[in-house]
Amino acid sequence: MKKNILLAAVFAVLATGVSAQNNTLLFGSTYIPQSNVLNPAFYPNNNTFYISLPSITQDIHIPVSYNDIFIKEGSSDQRFMNAWDLAGKLKDDNNLFLNTDIQHIGFGLRLRNLFVNFSSRTKLDIHFGVPTGVASLFADKFNGYESQTVTISDANLLQTTAYNEYAFGGGYTLGNLTVGARAKILQGICDFRSTQTDFSFTFDENSQLNEVLIKYYALSSGYQIFRKNSFGDAMKAVFSGNNWGMSFDFGARYKWEFLEFSASILDIGKGIHWKNDVVSISPHENTAITVEDYDFGHISIDNWDTLQSVFQGTLDSIQTNDSIHGGDYWSPIPTKINLGATVNLGKMFRAGIMFHGEWDKDISFFDKSGNPVDKTLFRHNTSLVFGVNLANWVEVMASLGVVKDGNKVDWFNPGVGVNFSLAKRLQIYVLANYVSSLKYTEIKSANIQFGLNLMFGSGLAKVINND
Fold this sequence. Notes:
alpha+beta; Porin; 3-stranded antiparallel sheet; 24 strands; disordered N terminus
């Protein structure tokens, strides 16, 4: 039992280390200033000035759950991995995403029909793509590969980007229409992305896997700075570096009697231009992994020492590589679109529907002929969102969404959120969205958000309530 608890903890850490969906529960809020992230034309109804204190958003999508990876063995508490079945599940949905968003500080001010706002935040985006060819090879259980060497190339193995974002925005209300815009200055901290990974599998006359050769190529910026310096010195180098970019957001809201329509497009721009400490990485030689009579259909905890040695050998090869310094490159930020419609049922209740989509640009892969191909992955969700206001100091939100990440559709993704305004000044909000299952061992995706705001002025709320 203790081993299973440990496995669950390790799996949670791995998932965190491995989608960027916006939290559509914010679409159901009229009081939380961070709703402005979805649409720059939004400003909270219950204040004229706010200060956003530090907040964090964690967004995770993995194609398999804990129960998919660790299978229960009979009626005992022992669990094992079946690489054949796992590969079959990863063959069609092979994208793992993690997005972490930490807001340092922010503020907003409304002056009659005009409002302005500012925010500073740090973002970490990680995308890991399980090579489709490798997953298909394991899903076929190596059948038909007698005495062959099969080489599979992939360019979408790993992409990680960490950057700061400084956003300046504002909006104006004219009658029933509110329009907003935001300019975002992007400051790159660190970036690492594989450009090509070659896997060569050698089989014997019985289709048994004997050896795997791995050769990889990658681009990085800032990685060597953090590797060779203390964190403080590395951050000084980052802030004096040349990794900059810019993007823009635009949005609109229109109110017509008890209906409200909204639309926004976010992160229009080329992305971040990486110039600081750019390194092209390739290994001294192929990483060779010898496989002898390994049972991929039943990998128990007792076999983990063998797997650990394999992973350690791969990591050692990454540390001993050939590096070419110099040059520059761009990394794109996914462009997003939000469309919504809301029905306000009196002063307390509202219900709506929201569509959110993201374009992940320049995701590279190799076709069957071995030629590199760039594509854009469109991920999207559609959610029903509900909200209830209680006495202007408690707000409860709920949602139910359908999510498509990559090639697979998840039909059941509930969410719930609440915010409290203590003494009408300190706002505390907690949101959990896109929870793919109510059982923690079956969760594949989730968006968790927590934050604090200081709210001042309530004149607008009084006008709205008396309207």
